[in-house]
Structure formats: C-alpha cells, structure tokens
Specification:
The structure is a homodimer.
Chain A: H1 3-6, H2 10-17, E1 23-24, H3 25-35, H4 44-57, E2 60-67, E3 70-77, H5 79-103
Antiparallel strand pairs in A: 1-3, 2-3
Helix pairs in contact in A: 2-5, 3-4
Chain A binds a DNA duplex through residues 3-4, 6-8, 10, 24-27, 42-46, 48-50, 52-53, 68-73.
Chain lengths: 118, 118
DNA sequence: ACCTACATATAGACAGCCTACATGTAGACT
DNA sequence: AGTCTACATGTAGGCTGTCTATATGTAGGT
C-alpha cells in the first residue's frame, strides 16, 4: 500500500476502529491490520502522533491504564469525534465515487457509445 | 474535496484522462472537472508540476504546439505510462476496497451476525 | 543473556498538493 | 484606449501528514 495514498484518510480509519469500543494505540494498529485482511500495516510513528492530533482537535479523549504491568493509553471517541466519523464516511463515499468515476476506463465514451466495439 | 485526499492519486487521474487522446495542461484540468461532474477542480499549481514530474519519470512525453496564437504543451502517454495506468487502476481498486471495508459501519461484526437485524 | 511480543513516544526526512504570483495572447465590450 | 475574461504555462515557497529510525521500558520464554 502506497503510503501517500493514506494521506487524508488516516483520520477516518482511526475514528472508524474506535467506533465500537475504546482501544489503545497498539490495539488500534492490530485492529487495522485485521480489518483490512493484512493490507494496512500502519507504523507506530504514524499512529501515535495521529491519535494525539485527533485528541488535541477534540475528536478523541484518552486515559491511562495499566494491564499486566504494561501501561496503555486508551482512546475513545468523543461526541464530536462521532459526528466527525459520519462526515468522514460520507466524504469517503464521494471521494471513492469521484475518483473511481474518472479512473474508469473509457469513462468519457460511455454516453456516446453506439455500437459494441471490441 | 479535501486536498490531502488526492495525495497519491493525482498521477492516476492525470494518466487516466490522457488515455484516449493527448491533451495540454489546461485541457486536462477541464477534463478532470467535467469527468468528475464538477467535483475535481485541480489548481494549475498542482497540475503543471505533476505533468512535468510524470514526463521526467517517463510516463508522459510532450511537444509544443501553437493554436490560435496560443502556445500549448501537449502531453501524451508513453508505453510505460500506459502500463503504469493499468497498475494505478488495480492499486486504486485495492485501495478503495481496503479503506471502504475498514470504514464500513460495524464492519467487525459482520462475521458474527446470527440473525438478520435491520 | 537473549529474543520476541507488547506498548508508547519523538525527531527529522520526505514528498506532494496548495496558495500566490508572474507572464503573456485573444477577443469582447465600453 | 482601457478593461475584463478566458485561455495557457510556469515557479517559489508553505504546509502538513506519513514514514524511518531511534529511544525507552515491561513481561515471558528459552
């Protein structure tokens, strides 16, 4: 997966995996890996700063917990974050439709096709 | 359309509009606008440098022409560029499938659904 | 002692899309 | 003559988010 392609979609991904339940960073990475069937292996250097950014903006809140002697910072969606997720979802729908439409082979000829031609 | 979302997809877009016929920069911008139903209004400061980059890499070739007293630099796909376009298309398919899959509401519960609900 | 998995964090590199600006022709309107 | 819009290309510099690399530390297995 080309790293640049993720640009501008990371927030949606993060917000989405946190929709059902709060998770800590490491678990979020594993959730993305699992939900994507192994395609999304996002490095910690991407996820942790992104989570902090989303918290700073107000879409997430976090709290520390200690489990099995290890410290975790668990993130959860705020109300604002939940609204944002909805927005990100519809933005994705539009984005995918637009790009997919332009990328479709011979897209511009569809409306002017008269006879099937190999 | 969030600018960052385009990151890493611009090349595919550009290559795609040049598939059928060679076009100059200004016409490419108009083609993107038209094919996207008005959604993709890409600034010249994005398109011209991108076209030069794609030419430098070898996916495009260009030549100058004068039409109606105005100079145009017309770009066309090279064989290499045509191959690249195919690659970009399948990359897009995978990308859209993966992101769409992760973003789908309640995606993680699909496999554990027992009774139809809603 | 060493390795792997778990867990968080930061610094700096890198790349590409954007805003803003510079330059110039053609044609319409006043 | 002056102004405006559309057409047409181009560069400089800003911005921002993802990545690589590194640092730190616990727990558990061999």
């Amino acid at each position: 997966m080309n790293p640049d392609a993720l640009r501008g979609h990371m927030d949606a991904l993060l917000l989405s995996v946190l929709e059902r339940e709060p998770l800590h960073g490491y678990a979020i990475i594993e959730a993305l890996l699992e939900r994507s069937g192994g395609a999304l292996n996002v490095p910690t250097g991407t996820v942790y700063p992104a989570l902090r950014r989303l918290e700073r903006i107000g879409y997430l809140s976090s709290e520390w917990a200690t489990v099995g002697g290890r410290k975790r910072r668990t993130y959860r969606l705020t109300d604002s974050g939940r609204k944002r997720l909805e927005g990100e979802r519809s933005a994705w729908q539009e984005f995918a439709t637009v790009i997919g439409g332009v990328l479709r082979p011979e897209a511009a000829e569809v409306s002017s096709v008269r006879a099937a031609d190999g």
